Amino acid sequence: MHGTNVLVTGGCGFIGSHFIKGLLSRDSSTTVINLDLLTYAGDPKNVGEWAESPRYKFVHGDIRDPELVDRLIPQVDSVFNFAAESHVDRSTGKDAGEFIKTNVYGVFVLLDAIRRLRPEIRFLQVGTDEVYGDIEAPGFPAENAILQPSSPYSASKAGADELALSFSRTHNLDVRISRCTNNYGPYQYPEKVIPLFITNALDEQPLPLYDGGTQIRDWLRVSDHCEALHLIMEKGQSGEIYNVGANQSPERSNAEITQMILAATGASASLIEPRSGLRPGHDQRYAVATDKIRDLGWAPQLDIEQGISETVSWYIENRKWWEAHKDAAYQAYYSDHYGQKKKT
Ligand code: NAD
Ligand code: TYD
């Protein structure tokens, strides 16, 4: 591992918490500072028993706070930035400003602190394949493809990538960027489609399937994404972008993923509720060329049915975790967005 003292931002969220657990497990000399604001999506318990480790320190704070960030940067040898507003549906509504503030300005605060205080350290910006926009089949954009983000979420992530690259070029910082496809697995907040449909199916609630369910996402296990991030930091190059994706073959539509969830939960197909109009600018297909990350020695697990089935088992066994997240704020978001109350 490059650098034994690591700042992980957004480490109480879905991917960041998996990443921290893996990082602390793989090398007993590594220490982690986890800087997280604990928005609705963050839960300090997501790091499990590592919360008690002397090698782990949680800092409740904001990546947009320059004074706080200035205190943390001198203590670390590398930074992984997961902190973000991450849900497309929220970015198309009244919360769009938060996406710009955290996903773009927050990245600036981190980069600027590194520039002034620790210009020799490595910075990995955790990005998304959604920056390439809607990809007509059978296209697989490489890292130098043009960016055509469709939503305020993906536009803010594209802005962050460009900003990070500008600090690499202008200030000679060691910046690396990952652009990963949709992740799934344990501890994913139940607003993204897979945990939403699993938990709704377990409660015999409707599965709001958007726009005919024909859309394609290149689903990747969160553990595979985390492995790729380690590799990019250890074996990747400064100033480079790395796409990360499963390249599922055949590609799976949202309707097929829904069927897998129904099969694994034993729920009835009658729960599927066709909806339209809830995802303005809905991208039909995401896909990326992954030769560059594979050349570093990375390969994903491709068994999506097995992955969905294991994920369903986790949500069955961890009902308390997700029920706690389906709190009053969640219910308010749910009825505001989906325009309905839970069926009783
Ligand atoms: P998440 O929403 O589960 O977690 C985000 C975390 O960031 C939360 O813990 C939240 O409290 C924290 N946070 C938000 N604003 C913050 C701020 N201003 N300061 C400090 N902490 C803040 O997100 P995720 O799904 O784990 O995604 C993590 C990163 O990976 C994001 O940058 C996202 O764009 C990227 N990504 C996600 C996916 C995916 O499928 N989920 C795919 C590719 C890339
Ligand atoms: P989502 O999990 O929100 O991830 P992203 O928008 O980052 O790809 O959505 C994945 C796909 O599932 C996307 O095509 C939209 C669709 N979807 C639904 O059909 N119903 C839902 O309630 C949600 C949240 C998403």
Give structural attributes:
Rossmann fold; alpha/beta; two-stranded parallel sheet; binds nicotinamide-adenine-dinucleotide; seven-stranded parallel β-sheet; binds thymidine-5'-diphosphate
Question: Can you walk me through this structure?
Answer:
The chain has a domain at 5-184 and 221-244: Rossmann fold. Helix 8 crosses helix 10 and helix 10 crosses helix 11. It has a seven-stranded parallel sheet, sandwiched between helices. A two-stranded parallel ribbon has the order 7-9. The model has no long low-confidence stretch (mean pLDDT 97). The N and C termini lie far apart (51 Å). By secondary structure, it is an alpha/beta fold. Helices cover 40% and strands 15% of the residues. The chain binds nicotinamide-adenine-dinucleotide and thymidine-5'-diphosphate.
